[in-house]
Structure formats: C-alpha cells, structure tokens
Amino acid sequence: MGSAILWWSRLSVRLVSVCLLCASVGKQCQIQNEMADCSHLKLTQIPSDLPNNITGLDISHNQLRQLGPANLTKYSQLVYLNAGYNSISKLQPELCKNVPLLQILKLEHNELYKIPDGVFASCTNLTELNLGYNRIDTKNDPFKTLENLNILDLSHNLLKSANLGLQQQLKNLRVLILDSNEITELKKEDFSFLSNTSLNSLDLSSNPLKEFHVGCLHAIGNLFGLVLNDVELGENRTKKLCTELSNTAIQNLSLSRVKLSYVGKSTFQGLQGTNLTVLNLSQNSLSVIEDDSFQWLSSLQYLNLKHNNFHISSRLFYGLSSLKHLNLINSLTGKIEDFSFHWLYHLEYLIMDNNNFPGITANTFTGLNNLKYLSLCNCNTNLQRITNKTFSSLGNSSLQVLNLTKTRISTIESGAFSSLGHLKILDLGLNEISQELTGREFKGLNNIQDIYLSYNKNLALQSESFIFVPSLRKLMLRKVGCSNLALSPSPFHPLQNLTVLDISNNNIANIKEDLFDGLHKLDILDLQHNNLARLWKHANPGGPVLFLKDLPNLRILNLKSNGLDEIPVQVFKGLFQLKNLDLGSNNLNMLPATLFDDQTSLISLNLQKNLITSVEEKVFGPAFKSLRILEMDSNPFDCTCESIAWFADWLNVTQAHIPGLQSQYICNTPPKYHGSLVLHFDSSACKDSAPFKLLFVITTAIVMLLIFIVLSIHFEGWRIAFYWNILVNRVLGFKELDRQQEEFDYDAYVIHARQDKKWVSKNFISLEKHNHFQIRFCLEERDFEAGVSEFEATINSIKMSRKIIFVVTEHLLQDPWCKNFKVYHALQQAIEQSRDSIILIFLQDIQDYKLYHALHLRRGMFRSCCILNWPAQKERVSAFHQQLVMALKSNSKVN
Ligand SMILES: *[C@@H]1O[C@H](CO)[C@@H](O)[C@H](O)[C@H]1NC(C)=O
Ligand SMILES: *[C@@H]1O[C@H](CO)[C@@H](O)[C@H](O)[C@H]1NC(C)=O
Ligand SMILES: *[C@@H]1O[C@H](CO)[C@@H](O)[C@H](O)[C@H]1NC(C)=O
Ligand SMILES: *[C@@H]1O[C@H](CO)[C@@H](O)[C@H](O)[C@H]1NC(C)=O
Ligand SMILES: *[C@@H]1O[C@H](CO)[C@@H](O)[C@H](O)[C@H]1NC(C)=O
Ligand SMILES: *[C@@H]1O[C@H](CO)[C@@H](O)[C@H](O)[C@H]1NC(C)=O
Ligand SMILES: *[C@@H]1O[C@H](CO)[C@@H](O)[C@H](O)[C@H]1NC(C)=O
Ligand SMILES: *[C@@H]1O[C@H](CO)[C@@H](O)[C@H](O)[C@H]1NC(C)=O
Ligand SMILES: *[C@@H]1O[C@H](CO)[C@@H](O)[C@H](O)[C@H]1NC(C)=O
C-alpha cells in the first residue's frame, strides 16, 4: 500500500516536471530590430545564444542573482540593458567593461546593497541609471565616474540622506529621483556633490522631510525644478522652503498634497526674487488664501489649484500678471467676487470645472482680455438660463473655446453668445436644453466652427435654426429629441462648410430627400439609432427616399440600428469617397446586386447583427476590394455553394482584419452545416460540380420545353392554327387589307338564324337609334342591295363591316346557310384582315363542343369581351347593351 502511494507520487512529480519542461521550451526570447526581449522567462542566466549584434536586452522579471562584465562579453553592442525585477544582490567591478556603448541600465527592484568600488568605472557612456527599489548604500562616491549621466533614480532605497558623494560629480545630471526614502532633513552640504550641476528636476516626494537647513538648496549649481509632493510641509515649512529657494534658478515647483491648508501673505515671499513659472498647489485642502498672497509671483505662468476649497476674493490673484494658465477644478467655495480675475490680463486658459458657486454676473470675467479658453464643465451655478448678459463680461476677450457641458442649462435666449464673436468652439452638450431653436440663439457667433449640442432634452429644429452660423464645420446633435426633420428648406442648407454632422439617437423616422443637399464638404455623417427603415422601403409611397444623393465627399457613414430591412440599389451611388460604412444591427437580408459598385475604396464595413444569409460577389465584390476591416459576424449564414463559396474563398486570401472570424461567423443553414464555422466551409466541392450543374440546367430546360410544346399542341392546337393562319397572311402580304376605321360602312355585320330575326331587329335597331353610340349594323333584311344575289351581298357586306356578330342559338347551329357559307366567310375575313373581329352573342346556353361541331368555333378563340350572354333578367339588358357597345368599339387588331 505504502509503496504504491510512493510510486504514484513519484510518477506525478515526473509528470509535473515534464510539463514544466514543455512550458519553458515553448517560451523563448523574442528578437525584433536588434532588441531581445527575454523578460518573464524564469531565467537564472543571460542566454548565450542571442545574436551578438543585439543593441537592446530586456532580461527583467527573471531570477538572475549577480551581474558582472563576464556575463555581457558576447553582447558588446548593447546600448540598453534592463535587468530590473531580478534577485541581483551583487554587481562586479567594471560592469560596463565589455559594453562600452551602454547608455541605459535599469536595475530597479533588485536586492542591491553594497556597490563595490569601480562598478561603474567604465560606464562612461551611461545616461540613465535606474536603481530604484533596492537598499543601496551610497558610501564611497559610487557614481563619480558617470560623467554623462542625465537621469539617476534612487527612489525607494531607504536612504537617510540626499548626500550621494563627497566630491563634486555628475555634472550632466538633469533629473535626480530620490522619492520615497527616509530623508528627514536637507543639510547645508548634502548637495555639494552637485555644485556644478544644473538640475531640471529634483524629486524628494514622500520623504519625512522636517528641516531645510540654511543654504541646502543653494549648494546645487542650478536648481530649476523641485518636486515635494506628499511631504508634510504645512504653512511653516512651506514658508521656510520658499526662503531657501529665494534667489535660486527655480522655475517649477510642485507642492501637491503637502497639507498646506492656509496660505498667508508672506508664505511665498521667498520666491520673490525667482523666475518661478510653474506652481502646483493641488490637493491641499487649501481653505484660506489671504489677499495678495501671490503678489510675489510675477513670473508665474501656470498655477494649479485644483482640489482645494477656498473663496475667490477680489484681490486673491493680485500680482499674477504673467499668468497664462489657471486650473481651478473643484477648488472653490462661496461666491466669486466681481472683478476677481481682472489682475490676470495675460490669462489664456481658465479651467473651472466641477465647482459650485452662486452665480456668474456681468462682471465676473471682466478684464480677462486675453482669455482663449474657458471651461465651466459640471459647474453648479446660474447657467440654467443663458441670457445676453451671462457672458457679456467676456465681450473684450478673444475667447475661442467655451465649454459648458453638464452645467444644467435649460434655456438659451436669443443673442446669448453675441458678445463672443471670436468663438470657434461652443460645447453645450449634456445639458437639459429644451426649446425650439429659432436661430437667434447663435446670433453673433461669426467665427464659430464647432457647436456641440449632443445629449440635451428636446431641441426642435426649424428651417432657420442655423441661419446665423454659416461658418459651422461640426454640428453635434446626438440624442436631442429632434425627431422631426422633415423640414423644407432643410435646416442644414445654410451650412455649406459643414464637415461633421451627428444626428444619431433621435428616433428620426421621416426626412426629406433634400435634407443634406449642398453639403458638399460633409465628411462624417452619423445617423445611427434612428428609425429610417421606412424611407428605404420599396413600397414607401413616392418610392424610396434617396437622402444621400448629394454628398460627394462623404467618408464616414453610420447607419447602425435603424431597423433597415431594405436598401434601394441606387442609395450609395456617387459616394465614391466612402471609407467607413456601418450598417450593423439592422434587419438586412438580401442586398441588391451592384449596391456597392461606387464603394471600391471602402476601408471598413460593418454588417454585423443582420439577417444576411448569402455573401455573393455580385453584391460585395466592389466593397471588399480594398477593405481592411470587415465586421460581418452574427449573421445567419447559409453555407451552400451559391450563398457562401465566394465569401469562403475570399476569407482564405484576404489581408483584411476580421474580428471574431474564428468564433462569430457561423453557418445557420443548411442543417448539415448548422453551427459550424464559415471559415471551415469547403468551397472546392462547389467548383467540381459546376459543369454537371450546367448540364443539368440545360437538360432540364430542354425537357420542360418539349413538354410544354406537346401540351400546348394538344390543348391549344386550334388556337395555334388560327393565329398561325393570321401570321401567314400577314407575312404573305395581305397587309393591304388592313384598313382604317373610316373605310368601313358598318360597325358590324350580323349573322343570325331566320328564326331570331325578331330579336335582332328589336335589339339592334334600338341600339342604332341611340344617338350617343353612333352605331350602324348591317342587317340582311334591311341593308342588302336589291338586285344583287344574296351570295354576293353577303360577301360584300362582310367586307364593309368592321366586326361580325354571331347571334348564337340552337337555330343558328342548324341553319345550313349560316353554318357553311357565312361562317366560313366571316372566319376567312377575320384571318385575312388579322382581325380579332368576331363577337359572339349567346341567346341560349350552348355547349362549347356543339359550337365547335356546328360552326368550327370555340369560345376560347375570342377575347372575353367579345363573348356576350343575353341576360335572363330584364334589369340587366342595359348592361348587356353597354357590353356590346364596348365590344364593338374595342380595337380589333391582333397583336
Ligand atoms: C554570470 O557569470 C557567472 C560566472 O561565469 C555565472 O556564475 C553567473 O550565473 C552569470 N550570471 C548571469 C546572470 O548570467
Ligand atoms: C545581426 O545578426 C543577425 C544574425 O546573427 C543578422 O541576420 C543581422 O542582419 C545582423 N544585423 C545587423 C544590423 O548587422
Ligand atoms: C560613447 O559612445 C560613442 C559611440 O556612440 C563612442 O564614440 C565614445 O567613445 C563613447 N564614449 C566613451 C566615453 O566611451
Ligand atoms: C508655525 O509657526 C508659528 C510661528 O512661527 C507657530 O506659532 C506655529 O505653531 C507654527 N505652526 C506649526 C504647525 O508648527
Ligand atoms: C530670471 O530671468 C531673467 C531673464 O531671463 C534673468 O536675467 C534672471 O537672471 C533670472 N533670475 C534668476 C534668479 O534666475
Ligand atoms: C439683451 O436682451 C434684451 C432683451 O432680452 C435687450 O433689451 C437688450 O438690448 C439685449 N442686449 C444686447 C447687448 O443685445
Ligand atoms: C468639454 O469638457 C468635457 C469634460 O471635460 C470634455 O469631455 C469635452 O471634450 C470638452 N469639449 C470640448 C469641445 O473640448
Ligand atoms: C467656407 O470655407 C471657405 C474655405 O475655408 C471659406 O473661404 C469661406 O469663407 C467659408 N464660408 C463661410 C460661410 O464661413
Ligand atoms: C486556402 O488557401 C490555401 C492556399 O492559399 C489552399 O491551400 C487552401 O485549400 C484554401 N482553403 C480553402 C478552404 O479554400
């Protein structure tokens, strides 16, 4: 039992180690452009099989323990070596002996403590050395040979002192990072090793600094930048610091999170003689700044006061005469006194986002004559109703950008921005504006280029809405509830320079064909999330609405989520510049052939989440030509040869990026392929069957044709014979017998049995008397010329009549004279003249076979309008007369 367990455990250990082996065999250094990336490989040694001409080596995140010149012999071209995140505790002297070109050496996150003499002796080309997150002991001037070093990072090293050496060194150092150490004081001589150095940045953040000894910062050759974030300074030590900085070259001072809650008149006095240009006082819970506190900072250009909580008094900014950039994000409390900003006559950028103050008055911004950019985003103040007074204090400025997003605006009065004639960008997005835009709201914005109105409550547009801003280039109207755009003229007509128009998410269901007419510069059109499906339907009254017809420069068109289930074939015609087309999330199934014929330079096409079953060349060929991104996933593809073979072939060769091709392009039909990937569709089978298919089609066609002919002859032989006769007569030149209407003396010759004479006289003579119809019948008894044989008279009369009426009764069928001679001549006449000129009137119900047997006529030989039945009911007689007149007047030419 025990040995079995042992055996099992041994086996599993072996299995595990085999697996680990596999894993590490699979991974190896990636080499690209002479740079070898060997990070995260659990290496304990530097690989010896890399190309020896590599210039960069990243061996970070491994398990190296020591590093010496011998390890680098092979890679003498190295310029960059990253050995951070290892367990290196020992460096050997002359580290750079074999890598004289090394410029960047990163050794952060190791276990370095002692740095033996001469480790960096030959690292003369080194410009950047990162030793952060170690426990470096800085005795013995370890860096004294690094004459070209620019950046030295010794952060997180438990250093107790900033003193890195006794003798003057590092004359080219620009950045010294000493943050997160244990430095409590800066002594007078601490920085004397930098007495010949011009530091752009000295970072002492997150040190428990308590004391700045007199002259400590003056020891540095030039100190341009000092970062003391997260050092507990408070007001007293801040003041002491500023005194120590007086007459230094300091330009950039960062005092963020230094617990400076109060600034007095003299706090910054020490900075008076400096050229300080950048001051960061953010996140200090500053609640009191005394008047004139910044009077000493006449060179200051950037002042960051964000995330504090102070009141702007009228003299707060006194003396900041060079200030260009003021950040007041989330920093104010109470009201802003009038004329507070007028000291800042060079201010260009004023950012006041996320504040809560009672109101903007007619003098809040007075004096900011150089202001270019004002942001009041997310301010809770009196902006609900913007009047022509709100920004009147900026009338003398040349403000170019005004950002008023999320400021709870509900109404814009006319002329609200009329004092901002230089404004280029106006952002009114994410507000609660609810009004009809009459156009006067934007009056005076003579140089405006962009207006953002997206995400407002309800903007009703009119034809004049943008009449005063013809210079507009970008108009954003996303989700503003402007569902009615069926306006004439279009509100966008004045905007001939428009390049971007966003009217998405508005539930627009009705627009006119000319909505975008004249927007010849339009580049981007966003129409997604509307309800445009009906406009493109075949059955739309008046036909599909082709609203994209006049946009020759359109590059990006978004029609996602519009419920589209039909696309008219002409709709994208002329859009030659189209590069991105999004038709995703619609209900499209069959797209018409040639739809994309003008879109041969399309780069990105989105048709995902539609109902597309087939992807055929005749539709998609042009669109796929230069495509780089295709998104057509989540469609119910029909994986048959006809529907998908061309697409499968294209997928196999295309260079285009197709996200989800391996998972989201799935066959729906036929059942055999349901659930399998389109990518796996084997189109080779389709090609083999092609000749057989053609043969099959031809054979089927021939057989069907034969069957048709046989059936036709069987059932319709007599009709064929009839028309054949007509045709032969035409071809053989009986054409001259075609005559004009006027050439006939009678409208109709009436053939009837003697017994039916009474009915004929009664009905036909009464019709003739009807002036309105102007009909003349040829009745044997009445109209035959005297002295001419009945035989001859019949032939002549038939010739002179436009139509021939048979009054069909049992008597007629038995009348031999009619049966033989008259019917024969009538038919002959009809055939010769190519005329469908016979009208049958049935006084009785006569079977078709009897008719054929007796007169060689069938009902089917005649047009239905030429077959009339004498009605049994009296009331219908006039309708019968009407029918008869229609039949007589009908064109009798056989076509
Ligand atoms: C460096 O070389 C020494 C001696 O050849 C060797 O023991 C050590 O593992 C090597 N270190 C690395 C990181 O390659
Ligand atoms: C570096 O060496 C590799 C092979 O060792 C060679 O293919 C490559 O061309 C060399 N690169 C340069 C810049 O010499
Ligand atoms: C630094 O590298 C350059 C080549 O990039 C070389 O010419 C120069 O001699 C090197 N400097 C030192 C001090 O080694
Ligand atoms: C700051 O200095 C003043 C006088 O120099 C002193 O009264 C005050 O207690 C000091 N504040 C702190 C927090 O040390
Ligand atoms: C401030 O700048 C001026 C002009 O650039 C220069 O003359 C002066 O020396 C600078 N002051 C200090 C303290 O660096
Ligand atoms: C501001 O609007 C009011 C009416 O609302 C008008 O009387 C006044 O003239 C307008 N002021 C300017 C400068 O347009
Ligand atoms: C306005 O500010 C908001 C919030 O900071 C920002 O998202 C938006 O892009 C700004 N608008 C412009 C036109 O820069
Ligand atoms: C439209 O743009 C052109 C060229 O940039 C410019 O000359 C013209 O003044 C602009 N039209 C309007 C109404 O601003
Ligand atoms: C894809 O193309 C390769 C060669 O380009 C060919 O061997 C392979 O059969 C093709 N696959 C399909 C499914 O057409």
TrEMBL record:
Molecular function as annotated in GO: double-stranded RNA binding; identical protein binding; pattern recognition receptor activity; transmembrane signaling receptor activity; ubiquitin-like protein ligase binding
GO BP field: cellular response to exogenous dsRNA; cellular response to mechanical stimulus; cellular response to virus; defense response to virus; extrinsic apoptotic signaling pathway; inflammatory response to wounding; innate immune response; JNK cascade
Top-level taxon in the UniProt lineage: Eukaryota
Domain TIR, residue spans: 744-888
Intracellular or extracellular location(s): Early endosome; Endoplasmic reticulum membrane; Endosome membrane
Membrane topology: Single-pass type I membrane protein
InterPro entries: Cys-rich_flank_reg_C, Leu-rich_rpt, Leu-rich_rpt_typical-subtyp, LRR_dom_sf, TIR_dom, TLR3_TMD, Toll-like_receptor, Toll_tir_struct_dom_sf
Membrane spanning stretches: 694-715
Signal peptide: 1-26
Pfam families with a match to the protein in the record: LRR_8, TIR, Tlr3_TMD
Keywords: Disulfide bond, Endoplasmic reticulum, Endosome, Glycoprotein, Immunity, Inflammatory response, Innate immunity, Isopeptide bond, Leucine-rich repeat, Membrane, Phosphoprotein, Receptor, Repeat, RNA-binding, Signal, Transmembrane, Transmembrane helix, Ubl conjugation
SUPFAM superfamilies the UniProt entry points to: L domain-like (SSF52058), RNI-like (SSF52047), Toll/Interleukin receptor TIR domain (SSF52200)
GO cellular component entries: early endosome; endoplasmic reticulum membrane; endosome membrane; plasma membrane
Xref: PANTHER family: TOLL-LIKE RECEPTOR (PTHR24365), TOLL-LIKE RECEPTOR 3 (PTHR24365:SF524)
Family stated for the protein in its record: Belongs to the Toll-like receptor family.
UniProt protein name: Toll-like receptor 3
Gene, per the UniProt record: TLR3
